[in-house]
Amino acid sequence: MMLSMVSDFLKSFARDERGVTAIEYAIIGVAISAIVLAVITDGGLGQALSDAMTTIDTNIGSAETFTPAGG
User: Global pTM?
Assistant: First the structure.
């Protein structure tokens, strides 16, 4: 009786694929992160993003000190 229960549990555990899917998604996520990191650090994309953020920061600073005409 006990051996049958253990055997049934092990069979159902072997057929259960819920954890496998989560592991697959984790592996895919790590691979995509590595690719994105490689593109940003090796290519000109990182510098382009840095330049864009600097431009945005400068424009926001200019807008804060802007005084409208007649004000």
Answer: 0.42
